[in-house]
Amino acid sequence: MSTGGSGARCRDFRDGNADMLEAMLSVRDDETSPWIDWMFARSDPAVITDPTARQALAVNFREALQQGIGAIAWDNVAFVGPWGFGVEDIATPVALWYGDRDEMAPPTNGQWLADHLPDARLTVVRNEGHLLPLAHLSEMLKTLSEMV
Known about the structure:
The protein is 55% helix and 8% strand. It is mainly alpha-helical.
């Protein structure tokens, strides 16, 4: 990804969301912290009530924040691009998985990608949200192995 204007956008995101990002850092080591509930209770209630999945989510979150808030800032900048390439130029087959209850990355995003990628397989899973991989990882990996 070219960082021409992206670096400034990353700094703007980080600076504009400093309080929220610092709050995220403050709870990164607390598996009982309510951030999991307020972020995912509506879209992924079955996942966040599963102790094993909840622990995996907390471990993932802790790891993502190991080096501070920069990764979250870059992740959010990447959502809106520009990416430095055209989606229609991607030649590799792509598996897209979305939960129909995902509010962070709704299935309409996946449909747009499927419509613009030359070789994409879109799967929308009913009654799943943003944490779909925690419940369907084996299916996702099987799909990927069939694509290569």
